[in-house]
Amino acid sequence: MTSQELDAFEEPAEIEEKPGPDGLRVILDRALCIGAAECVAAAPMVFRLDAQRRATLLDPARADPRAIWRAARSCPADAIMLENQDGEPLYP
Ligand code: SF4
């Protein structure tokens, strides 16, 4: 099998990225999400589950940064990543 044929089997990346408070950038990899909903419990202004029970980003910019950090740390799939405004990783 060629590498092009293998690529056809891979799930497309489903990255959502939005600015959060204080220069924080919130990145959600929906392909990793297993629908555990810890993020929704920690930061309901920022995350919700869609009809497929996968997380999607709402409005991180007006959220409490502590809630965003709690959500990222509570995700069992490490689907939530945080960066600073220069694109440097802060979490995980
Ligand atoms: S906590 Fe992680 S796995 Fe659970 S819904 Fe949120 S992003 Fe998905």
Quick overview:
The chain is an alpha+beta fold. It is built from 3 helices and 6 strands; from the N terminus they run αββαββαββ.
Description:
- The protein has 92 residues and is α+β, with helices and mostly antiparallel strands.
- It has one domain: 2-Layer Sandwich (Alpha-Beta Plaits).
- The chain has three helices and six strands, in the order αββαββαββ.
- The strands form two sheets. A four-stranded antiparallel sheet has the order 1-2-5-6, covered by helices on one side. Strands 3-4 form a two-stranded antiparallel ribbon.
- β1 (15-19) and β2 (25-29) form a beta hairpin.
- The longest helix has 10 residues, at 65-74.
- It is globular.
- It binds iron/sulfur cluster.
- Residues 33-39, 47, 55, 75-77, 79-80 line the site of iron/sulfur cluster.
Biggest β-sheet strands, sense, barrel: 4 strands, antiparallel
Number of helices in the DSSP assignment: 3
As a whole number of angstroms, the C-alpha radius of gyration is: 14 Å
* Overall pLDDT: 91
| CATH class division | Alpha Beta
At CATH level 3, the topology is Alpha-Beta Plaits
Strand % is 25-35%
Instruction: Return the domain count.
Output: 1
What is the helix/strand order? HEEHEEHEE
Q: Rough shape? A: globular
Helix content: 10-25%
How many distinct beta strands? Answer: 6
Secondary structural class: alpha+beta
Give the bound compounds.
iron/sulfur cluster
Termini separation: 35 Å
Question: What ranges have pLDDT less than 50 throughout 5 or more consecutive residues?
Answer: none
CATH architecture: 2-Layer Sandwich
**Taking strands numbered 1, 2, ... along the chain, how are they ordered across the largest sheet?**
1-2-5-6
